[in-house]
Amino acid sequence: MKPSIHDVAKIAGVSSTTVSRVLNNRGYISEKTKDKVYKAMEEINYFPNDLARSLFRKRTNLIGLIIPNSSNPFFGELAFYIESICTSMGYKLLLCNSLNRIDKEEKYLEMLIRNQVDGVIAVTYNRGILNYHQQNLPIVAIDHYLSEKVPVVGSDNFAGGKKAAELLIKKDCQHIVHINGPIELETPANLRRKAYEDVMREHGRQPITYEVPFHENYRNIISKLFDEQPAVDGIFASDDIIAAGVITEAKKRGKDIPGQLKVIGYDGTETIQAILPELTTIQQPIELISKTAIEILEKQIEGEFDNLPLETYLPIQLFESGTT
Amino acid sequence: MKPSIHDVAKIAGVSSTTVSRVLNNRGYISEKTKDKVYKAMEEINYFPNDLARSLFRKRTNLIGLIIPNSSNPFFGELAFYIESICTSMGYKLLLCNSLNRIDKEEKYLEMLIRNQVDGVIAVTYNRGILNYHQQNLPIVAIDHYLSEKVPVVGSDNFAGGKKAAELLIKKDCQHIVHINGPIELETPANLRRKAYEDVMREHGRQPITYEVPFHENYRNIISKLFDEQPAVDGIFASDDIIAAGVITEAKKRGKDIPGQLKVIGYDGTETIQAILPELTTIQQPIELISKTAIEILEKQIEGEFDNLPLETYLPIQLFESGTT
DNA sequence: CTGAAAGCGCTTACAG
DNA sequence: CTGAAAGCGCTTACAG
């Protein structure tokens, strides 16, 4: 049986109220009593039960994080920073991998609510979260619109898309194609596409965007792109994994990079930097995104629901390397 | 105020005991009463408080996962599978990134204990976990020895190292070098090194192993290796990130792969397959490792501490590709 | 400076 | 088939 506060009290010869007080450093307690209590705790290896504490305080210091898949380096890194920052602030993180499936997102959300999390950080397509939000559950979204009231934090996707498209134009690419996720999803990431298309038109070019349908293999789309666009000499992929796929396919087809084809990705995770440092990409400030999201979440946890910054777009950075 | 079981009871016109019974589907309850209760729950949007439940049951269904860093694709994937499997079994996952720092590992462990986790899965160097284990905390380690009593699960590192070394020999490499993590850490992963050295000696070769000191940048070691071993024509790296670093350095030095230098890594994550599919590597069965670890953990949670498989090594697979 | 009592939101014998 | 009571391990007014 795990020792409880009563066991400590008995050994120290005081009441459990007193033990609780030294535990929480609250009210006046004589040094002598404190000592006795600490010794007793040590003696029986006592650790307070946070469950009981949370139950009383109505505050768990638990944060739920819903991401599609921590296998993906971007989300893996996001999870790392969010968890690290949470820990430094006294929060604990419940991890949820939704695989972008709405049914899973909903189940996870219910689980988080049952576990009385103080707040949720979601990288999610689930607009149903709205219903839960009405219950005053603090929530912040990363790179996804959930509702008019849920704050979104992300990278400056428009600036990123613009920088990517402009680089390819500057590098004298004549036939620039963009690969993006499905646009029916209303994510700020669509701005990457919009920026590309705007830049193209500004330069009198015809934008060509290939979409990767939800849950379809992006490799097929890449292959299709090469088949249909033999003249392609510049590709802006909306994430680095796809960009890597483009490079692989180009090699297979004997296209020289950057000679015949220039490629630029998006995300710029540490993993991509380590594995494929030659990839030119737009780096998201993942740590800053994490920090900002947590700050906005904390405001809500502290009861501040008005004056929240509803949309925060953090600066991206061009990492120029070998593929351009 | 969140509704409690009492609010439901009041609306349904029954006692909270009855509400609890329909919640848990326990004992006999008339259909009529059940209906009333369900309707009441729906009406006020009631979700049971798992904290209170866990407090009573002395069972949280919480599992703590301590990994060095979810940014690393191997750990990101491990976290994904462990979380997914946990969820499918009704467990919830508390994520902890220790950065391999013992002080952090200890703090996390205490946090997990305070939160009454049912068990811990650790990818950790912390032998201090031992002390906590005495408290009957169910625990299983992945690829790290914690104590004689803590079950370890991992890939068959010896077979993997052997296969890697033998492939390079078969491919006619004359000067094969191995890069590994620091050996002072007693991890089963040292078997990768041992297997390489055994195979080399069997073939009358001199094993040469470069170690990456703890917390040092592996790139420096790679660079040093190339400087000191100009004749090197085969490298077995103990993980794919290092292997990718070798490829990058080789390119920089104008060494043709696989013509002048053959490279093989270890891990074979989905991420590496997506980003660097040309890398030959030894694939760990990450999903199987996750599943096995959870099964062994669950046995402990169910009270079975004897007859646990103390060391489980799951089969690896050679993924042969362009770098050999 | 310290303790007895009530309560956080549940569940489970026990009784009827 | 249903309810009153006790208790899980804490904390916090309240009282002294």
Automatic annotation (TrEMBL), chains A, B:
Concerning SUPFAM superfamilies, the annotation shows:
lambda repressor-like DNA-binding domains, Periplasmic binding protein-like I
| Keywords from the named record | DNA-binding, Repressor, Transcription, Transcription regulation
Task: Please give one Pfam family short name.
Answer: LacI
Q: Where is the HTH lacI-type domain?
A: 3-57
Checking InterPro entries in the record gives: Cro/C1-type_HTH (IPR001387), HTH_LacI (IPR000843), LacI/GalR-like_sensor (IPR046335), Lambda_DNA-bd_dom_sf (IPR010982), Peripla_BP_I (IPR028082)
Single GO MF descriptor: DNA binding
Q: Where is the HTH cro/C1-type domain?
A: 4-47
| PANTHER family xref list | LACI-RELATED TRANSCRIPTIONAL REPRESSOR, RIBOSE OPERON REPRESSOR
Q: What is this protein called?
A: LacI family DNA-binding transcriptional regulator
Q: Which organism is it from?
A: Bacillus cabrialesii subsp. tritici
